[in-house]
Input
Amino acid sequence: MVNTIQEKEGVGKFGEEYTDRNYMLPDEFDKLLYSRIGFYRTEQIDEFLSDLKLNNILEVGSNVGNQLLLLQKKGFKNLYGIELNRYVVEKSKARAKGINIIQGSAFDIPFKNSYFDLVFTSGLLIHISPQDINNILDEIYRCSKKYIGGSEYFSEDYIEVNYRGQKELLWKTNFAKLYLDRFPDLKLIKERRYPYLADRKLVDHAFLLKKIENFR
Output
């Protein structure tokens, strides 16, 4: 069920236009990120995930599957994505062969507790209202057995940003800290901040958290 303003925009024309703008080949997507922050996503994958044993991975808010396709290219198996917009899901399935893309809400992820070794987001949390963010964090935490990852816009404070002329659609903050403050058994094991080349005030924050209770 679609309940929030952000979800309503995501399943409508606004969300479809966003999808069409980001529909590209994995190599094109990788090069686009390099042009923005000076790093390839494949480089980030190597840095953050190459040493981990990951039997399965879920991306929450997978859009057209760009992140998952790059993970597949790097050799990761048992990849899953959950996406709210049916239009996006169908486009994802048409191109993401061997990747499990399903329609569903991040507020109610249709998988059992501790099912995935890694659950991550990329540019999803920034589109969740601060009043709703903890509901999403809870679901991501619930489905993760070992690791939680993210790549989101960073700010020390919680700041709303005008997004393509609209309000209540984009925020930035320290999302890793939100997780750490909410879940005492999480530990930050790796993070990097990537200022945008064209605007150094805009920063991508990549982070990896670990459930320490599962590693005793």
